[in-house]
DNA sequence: GCCCTTTCTGCTCATATGAGCAGACGAGCG
DNA sequence: CGCTCGTCTGCTCATATGAGCAGAAAGGGC
């Protein structure tokens, strides 16, 4: 490591600085770019083939040789491994950012990857709890027909939109269920209620209560997270005003998970608001044996960090840039 | 190619679109990112190892697997080959652009590569004709002591600066010669003279004439090219005014080679100016068996194209971006 | 200058990979 | 329905590559 070889034959023409490194680059060029055999490289550089092999190995080790798989469906296994280790999550799926045309494309890739992951889940979940939103909708679309058989899908948070086309949340759940030849169970409740009493009584309702307990016992969960901003689905659906969100942000909110706003530590930001939010509690989510969070896109780094550091998911599906940001900024 | 396999077992869950492609990506991930053996990959993906091998081969062929050598001293052999073929030059040296911090860095890389190339030239030139300028100065600096022995260096164009520190052109030649334990022969003449008569008589001078004929018989040449702009060395040295250059540009000049302005076709732009320019003629340069042009940097694409298309060099040293530009825009 | 320790070199041998081939399979056609 | 053709599969065999080892060389302390 600290050995910088001194030249014994000062007559020779060569650079004082590490000669082997340069040789290893030349060898790599011939080997990889010109696909010569190590033997041929040796002949050209006047080295034995073993030396060439070692040079190549050292070039790889020092990171001079980068092998990249360029394909929209490729994944970043190295990042995935690092994420798994760093955040102690069961699995991580990272899609490449290279060559994406805008945020939509990136979301589509992540959705595709999430769909693939879901389809490959073993054991196949009997009941799958899902949230809703743009990301979940994308995932539903990317699932292939027959991705599983007999999976029942249950909504885990309220979502009958109050002033938008009501179908979107329901359609997501239905589509996921249909493609797995299963049943969809909707949670027939607003996401957030104005008064605590209303929330209590709606929960007490047989239908709603039944769905909630089914949701609590799902064998796996699939959800996304929203950014705490004015374009949040909860704002667009009219559950919260932009001002409400501003106030939440002031109090440390980074985003929402199944309708519940959390801070960087994954704690509920506003308990009284949370009390009025219908759906799975975050604690239930944390106890789940399989909970897949699909969080991709430039704006979602903060929520993503909150989710992975506070144990809200066992599996994270994200994009390369977000993954790098997660790994980067906390030493 | 046109075969899109129809599924024989419609019960299976899979995407309609080319399944093998996706498999080859998964295989590549396991093979390259996780460095598993093809056998292991086969075990994971439930394929025979031969199938994995074929998948990998097809992924390579389709360009999904990119192997890059990341190092300042690396070269772009593939680009070099293409350049050689496209422009029918003997050799091309292309340095990578990745990771360069500004134009200086890029120039330094090209200079380094040119120095390396020069040092590896066989047979070693007995006499080397050189031009001068910032690029040549860089090359001289990057040459290592003892890059050759007994190489005599001769200036091929006038360069005793009229109003700058006079040393720069001379120093370049001296340094190249010193590092090869050889003699430097300067061309003691201005680059451009105001009157044709003066130029004729200076050429008739024994000293100057002798240097010029030595230059014409050099066994190899090393030169760079300047952009036709106000920051050209010829302007800075006071041989031309910015207005002169504007006029040359108006008449189609793209840059200068050994002090002579050429257009995109490699033709002399202003014959009367050229008549007053002291140094090797471009025709002599074109007849040379070895002439190395070092032309790198964003602004130099046009000159570089003129040089390679008009046969001014047998060897081009350039950077990746310029190389791509050269290959790109002419079909 | 001499000896000890560390690194480097060229090897043998085991393993991984690629070329090429015969049979299997499926598609299209009479 | 059966035939032929082209493609794909799994194989054998040759080659390329990596692991591990013994001797050589180099560096450092005394």
Task: Compile the SSE list and pairings.
Two copies of one chain form a homodimer.
Chain A: H1 19-33, H2 38-45, H3 49-61, E1 65-69, H4 77-87, E2 91-95, H5 102-120, E3 127-130, H6 134-142, E4 152-155, H7 167-179, E5 184-185, H8 196-204, H9 206-216, E6 220-227, H10 233-236, H11 242-250, E7 253-257, E8 260-263, H12 271-275, H13 282-287, E9 291-294, H14 301-309, E10 315-319, H15 320-329
Parallel strand pairs in A: 2-10, 3-4, 3-6, 4-5, 6-9, 9-10
Antiparallel strand pairs in A: 6-7, 7-8
Helix pairs in contact in A: 1-2, 1-3, 2-3, 4-15, 5-6, 6-7, 14-15
The structure holds a DNA duplex (30 and 30 nucleotides).
How would you explain this protein's 3D organization?
The structure is a homodimer of 331-residue chains. With 331 residues, chain A is of the alpha/beta class. Chain A is 46% helix and 14% strand. In chain A, strands 2, 3, 4, 5, 6, 7, 8, 9 and 10 form a nine-stranded mixed sheet that branches. Chain A is elongated and about 85 Å long. At the A-B interface, helix 1 and strand 1 of A face helix 1 and strand 1 of B. Chain A binds a DNA duplex (30 and 30 nucleotides) through helix 3.
Brief synopsis:
2 copies of one chain form a homodimer. Chain A is of the alpha/beta class and 331 residues long. The first copy, chain A, has helices at residues 19-33, 38-45, 49-61, 77-87, 102-120, 134-142, 167-179, 196-204, 206-216, 233-236, 242-250, 271-275, 282-287, 301-309, 320-329, and strands spanning 65-69, 91-95, 127-130, 152-155, 184-185, 220-227, 253-257, 260-263, 291-294, 315-319.
Low-confidence stretches of chain A: 1-17
How would you sum up the global shape of chain A?
elongated
Would you tell me the overall average pLDDT of chain A?
88
Number of H- or I-type helical stretches of chain A: 15
Roughly what fraction of the amino acids of chain A lie in strands? 5-15%
Order of helices and strands of chain A: HHHEHEHEHEHEHHEHHEEHHEHEH
| End-to-end Cα distance of chain A | 25 Å
Name the chain pair whose interface involves the most residues.
A-B, 37 and 37 residues
Q: Tally the beta strands of chain A.
A: 10
Helix content of chain A: 40-55%
Main beta-sheet strand count, sense and barrel state of chain A: 9 strands, mixed
* Assembly state: homodimer
Structural class by helix and strand composition of chain A: alpha/beta
Rounded to the nearest angstrom, the radius of gyration of chain A is 26 Å
């Amino acid at each position: 490591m600290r050995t910088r070889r001194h030249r014994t034959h000062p007559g020779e023409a060569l650079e004082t600085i590490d000669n082997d490194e340069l040789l290893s680059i030349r060898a790599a060029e011939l080997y990889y770019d010109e696909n010569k055999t190590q033997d041929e490289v040796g002949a050209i550089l006047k080295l034995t083939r073993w030396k060439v092999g070692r040079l190549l190995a050292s070039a790889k080790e020092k990171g001079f040789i980068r092998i990249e798989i360029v394909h929209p469906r490729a994944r970043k296994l190295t990042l995935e491994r690092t994420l798994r280790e760093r955040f102690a999550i069961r699995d991580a799926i990272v899609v490449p950012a290279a060559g994406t045309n805008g945020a939509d494309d990136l979301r589509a890739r992540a959705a595709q990857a999430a769909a693939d992951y879901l389809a490959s889940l073993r054991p196949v979940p009997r009941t799958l709890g899902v949230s809703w939103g743009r990301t979940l909708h994308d995932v539903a679309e990317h699932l292939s027909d027959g991705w599983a058989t007999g999976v029942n899908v249950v909504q885990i948070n309220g979502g009958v939109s109050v002033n938008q086309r009501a179908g979107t949340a329901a359609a997501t759940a239905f589509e996921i269920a249909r493609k797995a030849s299963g049943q969809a169970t909707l949670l027939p409740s607003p996401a957030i209620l104005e008064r605590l009493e209303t929330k209590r009584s709606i929960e007490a309702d047989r239908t709603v209560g039944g769905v909630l307990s089914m949701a609590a016992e799902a064998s796996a969960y699939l959800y996304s997270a929203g950014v705490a901003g004015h374009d949040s689905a909860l704002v667009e659906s009219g559950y919260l005003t932009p001002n409400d969100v501003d106030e939440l942000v002031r109090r440390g909110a980074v985003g929402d998970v199944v309708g519940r706003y959390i801070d960087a530590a994954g704690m509920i930001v506003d308990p009284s608001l949370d009390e009025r939010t219908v759906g799975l509690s975050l604690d239930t989510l944390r106890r789940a044996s399989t909970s897949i969070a699909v969080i991709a896109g430039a704006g979602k780094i903060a929520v993503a960090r909150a989710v992975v550091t506070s144990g809200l998911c066992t599996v994270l599906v994200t994009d390369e840039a977000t993954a790098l940001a997660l790994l980067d900024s906390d030493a």
